[in-house]
Amino acid sequence: MIEKEILIHPLISGTLALPDDKDTYPAVLLLAGSGPIDRDGNDRKGKYQTNLYKELAHFMTGLGFVTLRYDKHGTGKRNGNWMEAGLSDLATDAKTAMLFLREHPNVDPEKVIVCGHSEGTILATILAETMNPSGCMFLSGGVDNLMEALHHQRQFAYKELFAKPGLKGWINRTLKIDVRNEKQYAKLLEKMKRSDRDTIKIQLFFRQPAKWFREHDAYDTRRALKNVTCPVFAMHGDKDPLLESHVLQELDRLVQGKSQYYIISNMEHGLRVQTEPRSILSMKKMFKDILNRPLHEEGLKTIETWLIDHIKTDPSQKG
Description:
By secondary structure, the protein is α/β, with parallel strands linked by helices. Helices cover 39% and strands 19% of the residues. The strands form 2 sheets. The chain has an 8-stranded mixed sheet with strand order 1-2-4-3-5-6-9-10, with helices on both faces. Strands 7-8 form a two-stranded antiparallel sheet. The longest helix is centred in the middle third of the chain and has 18 residues, at 177-194. The model is unreliable at 313-319 (pLDDT under 50).
């Protein structure tokens, strides 16, 4: 495998991984999830070092694919403020990266797949609708837009808070914390939708990515999926508390091309092994321990099988 530091655009740094530089190969564009994480899946402060996208890139390149991953606004080697970037900015970056891959001399332009993780699945949806890739992959996401996913997460959190034993659960139920919190959330969202700023402050000090919220709120993933003609692959983990996997059942009637989805047992949002119960309230507590675990073997095998079947990569190219 050969890895190269590249400039996709004068402002966008990335990493291109190739099986070698002597032939042309199918390619996968990796689209990262939300927050201030770089091309590898790590934050600048060193608190969240997942290396998820680096590991996925190496795995896919080992199967015979060129892979490209890049830094978002204000992450890695890229300047800017990640909080000021809206969905439109993220989509422009993704489209620029897609064009770069298609024009690269070691890439077969007819065999470029977009692969999004978490928020990246929404970017993958945008590219699948507008740029006709040869395939589209949703890892830990898909079908729902961001606002719907956040709604699911809040409802799951309320359910856990209400189920707490003893006095804590009783207080949560009596105070109807779900009703109170939903009113506060609706008020904040309305404030962001009325604003024309990239960010706004709440309670004088706390910045919120208003443009990001506005544009995600306006984006209809299901409408977009109806225009997707390429094969679509989706994979969730059954221990992922950030998703409602039943929405993947809609894929077959939404997309025009062939779709397949998989729910992997004992896999969490970051595609690693989790045997502990599914819990949104315990995610942070478990996070450091889970990062020491490998990517889920069955999850990787499922990805490999789909890539080989749909792009017809010769398995002998594995390195």
